[in-house]
Amino acid sequence: MRSIKQLKNLKGKTALLRVDFNVPIEHGRVKDDFRIRKALPTIDFLIRKGAAKIILITHLGKDGSQELAPVIESFFKIHKSSKSKIEFFENVRKFSGELKNDLVFAKKLSVLGDIYVNDAFSVSHRAHASVVGLPKLMPSYAGLQLEEEVKNLSRTFKKPKHPFLFILGGAKFSTKIPLIKKYLKLADHVFIGGALLNILLKAKGYEIGRSLFEKGNFGVGELLKSNKLILPVDVVVKSGSFLVNRRIDEVQKDEFILDVGNKSVNLLKLYIKNSKLILWNGPLGKSEVINSGSTKGVLKLVAAAKAESIICGGDTVEVISKMKMENKFTFVSTGGGSTLDFLANGTLPGIKALK
Questions:
Q1: pTM
Q2: What is the pLDDT of residues 84-97, one digit of tens each?
Q3: Hey, is 157 helix, strand or coil?
Q4: What average pLDDT is seen over the chain?
Q5: What is the set of domains in the chain, with CATH numbers?
């Protein structure tokens, strides 16, 4: 990728900077500013290179109906720059041309600046106008955060260190099966938690009660043959109004599996201790227990380990932000779906567009 580090002088020039400030908003305020803070080094770099103006392009929400006011307010609290120096374009998904990667819309954006910088790894899996259209129309570069994402995530499939542990959680088996297949080959151990676990338990003949379960033929039988696959030995279930720790063969028909159990966390502790590289994507429990359950406990174990640790997935990162543990890991990714695609395929449309 062409990097902004190659830029010599931006004096008098305007940079169009694609960021992803699609952050959670609660009661009109930004709930988690992790992605905003991660874009600041690139903004500061462009200012140091003499950029006369930086226009930030982001979306908020899926349909573009949300106003950027809370995001703008949060940004200028963090970054004490002049509003004449840094401007926000409108919520870019307000415009139908964005999602369609319409050339006419891309051209309208391109005339606003002199160079284009993509620092939005978390939307670089989208073939949208502000991601893949603009690089065709103007000098284009990768921002510092985008480069960090590519460099660090690539370490998990380009000569990874061993022993290598992959921890995978979340809910949608269909989006994560490519990762399971890939990392059963690359990693030494793959631990499965979250609602993904329910499909594997059911395939092994265990009762999963009324737990979240994605229907489909995922070729689970082949996965279960791998001696690299580690499944929890116990789970936390909701039984009536109580949370109960049960062995995986004790779950009742009227219960919900909400989390990985205590014995499983202790089992995982041994693998974490012996690993040199740990990749983690997705929470191990449902949202109602995520802040007090296994996800939090295992994050503490990984943070204390000597291994290189790469953490990704929006829900997991949100827990890290709440725990103020971002600096305890080797790298924390800003991506969600983009991380899954990059780990599975080794590139993204937004990355290809910068070559």
A1: 0.94
A2: 899 999 999 999 99
A3: coil
A4: 95
A5: 4-146 (3.40.50.1260), 155-344 (3.40.50.1260)
